[in-house]
């Protein structure tokens, strides 16, 4: 039934008129075919896959991924996904492995050999070689009865009914299915190992993941003279001067020991000036917002951004364990670090 769906899409592309509509049909046809390939994988999940994942979970050393051609390129990505989610892994080029590099594989490693046909000579030879040193082998193939599958300890079936091209020849649906299965296994292992956010951050010290999971409020906040602070006895007029000079759109109200008492923002000012009794000589303590939202010094900057977005505010006081003000953080500062909630 799924094969019929793919064929119908391909026929519609072949029969379509040339131009933008035909291009849309071409793209849609390929994406639909690859979507169907992944749906086929979902429907084929069985005990063999569970046993393969359990075997990987018990791996005492490295998951060594090997492949050639398109399968090799997919294998590199799968190995990277394993390593970045807490399962130590590396990619071993099948051709180079047969010229000495296979010596890097030991009996405590697990070889994940990828070949859609299961007959790629170099991949089969690598699997045979590491089997001789007692290494367990997982075959990821579209043919569970292939030579590679027969050598393997366990087989992961990534077979698809058709490729996405008109001639059913170009590795497309099969490579998508293989990569998706690699992601599924890597993330299943990540969950089974109960990998924490902190561990993921340590594995991604740079880039978006690292910034989101490692950047703390203390890395982003303004401190010392840049923090607009007044005492509650200060006039509204002088408090506004402090707020204007800091360009933070807010002023923090503290006691003599810098304990946070309240906050006054430009939004508070807009509401206040509508009051008939408003006077710039009034004490700021009489109009400040008491019990303001705040963040602790060691919290993640991403958490601070979340608090600001939820409460629709742009500024947060930063306090230590004694609730003494140590800084102030603005939403724009967090966003400038490339951090999103």
From TrEMBL:
InterPro entries: CBS_dom, CBS_dom_sf, GutQ/KpsF_isomerases, KdsD/KpsF-type, SIS_dom, SIS_dom_sf, SIS_Kpsf. It comes from Neorhodopirellula pilleata. This is Arabinose 5-phosphate isomerase KdsD. It holds the Pfam family CBS. The record marks 70, 122, 163, 204 as: Catalytically relevant. Residues 221-280, 288-341 form the CBS domain. The lineage of its organism: Bacteria, Pseudomonadati, Planctomycetota, Planctomycetia, Pirellulales. It is an enzyme of class 5 (isomerase). Its EC number is 5.3.1.13. One of its GO terms (molecular function) is arabinose-5-phosphate isomerase activity. Residues 52-195 form the SIS domain.
């Amino acid at each position: 039934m799924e094969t019929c769906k793919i064929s119908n899409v391909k026929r519609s592309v072949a029969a379509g008129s040339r131009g933008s509509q035909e291009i849309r049909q071409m793209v849609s046809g390929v994406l639909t075919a690859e979507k169907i390939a992944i749906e086929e994988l979902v429907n084929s999940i069985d005990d063999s896959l569970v046993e393969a994942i359990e075997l990987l979970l018990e791996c005492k050393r490295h998951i060594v991924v090997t492949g050639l051609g398109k399968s090799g390129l997919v294998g590199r990505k799968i190995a990277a996904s394993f390593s970045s989610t807490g399962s130590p892994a590396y990619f071993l080029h099948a051709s180079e492995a047969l010229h000495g590099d296979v010596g890097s594989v030991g009996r405590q490693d697990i070889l994940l050999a990828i070949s859609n046909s299961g007959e790629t000579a170099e991949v089969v030879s690598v699997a045979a070689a590491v089997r001789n040193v007692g290494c367990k082998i997982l075959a990821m193939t579209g043919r569970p009865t292939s030579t590679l599958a027969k050598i393997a300890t366990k087989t992961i079936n990534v077979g698809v009914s058709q490729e996405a091209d008109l001639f059913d020849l170009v590795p497309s649906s099969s490579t998508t299915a293989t990569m998706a299965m690699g992601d599924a296994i890597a993330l299943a292992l990540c969950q089974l190992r109960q990998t924490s956010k902190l561990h993921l951050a340590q594995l991604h010290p740079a880039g978006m993941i690292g910034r989101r999971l490692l950047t703390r409020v203390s890395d982003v906040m303004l401190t010392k003279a840049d923090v607009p602070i007044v005492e509650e006895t200060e006039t509204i007029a002088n408090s506004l001067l402090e707020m204007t000079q800091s360009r933070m759109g807010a002023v923090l109200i503290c006691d003599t020991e810098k304990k946070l008492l309240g906050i006054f923002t430009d939004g508070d000012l807009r509401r206040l000036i509508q009051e008939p009794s408003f006077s710039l000589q009034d004490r700021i303590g009489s109009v400040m917002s008491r019990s303001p939202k705040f963040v602790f010094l060691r919290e993640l900057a991403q958490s601070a951004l979340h608090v600001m977005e939820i409460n629709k505010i742009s500024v947060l006081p930063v306090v230590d364990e004694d609730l003494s003000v140590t800084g102030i953080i603005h939403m724009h500062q967090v966003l400038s670090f490339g951090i999103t909630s």
